[in-house]
Amino acid sequence: MSSFDPMGAALDWLDAYLGRDISIIDLYAGNAALECNCHGQSTVGRAALYKYWRQRFAEKPAGALAALTTNGGDVVICYAVPDGVASRLRSRSKLVARSSIASAVL
User: Fold this and answer.
1) What is the C-alpha to C-alpha distance for residues 101 and 6, in angstroms, rounded to an integer?
2) CA distance 66 to 64
3) CA distances from 57 to 3, 19, 70 (A)
4) How far apart are CA 23 and CA 78, in angstroms?
């Protein structure tokens, strides 16, 4: 049985985002592709993730946790950003990193 805790990993991810901690990129698998609806393209590779997160920290800092739920074996984490609520999907073993912004502002 795996000792991976997807809820804990999702919260670690949000903590890194809230703290604007660039080590957030260490939470991604080496071959992860981050797909963000905020710019409509995939970000692949460590250098691209570094650039993405530096920009994301400045333009859309994370706010309070809005929801943390499961969907099958996956975890969906929702959190406030300046223009609404964003969500991320974390699979059982890695960050899938799809995001979307809801129009409601917290």
Assistant:
1) 22
2) 6
3) 30, 9, 26
4) 20
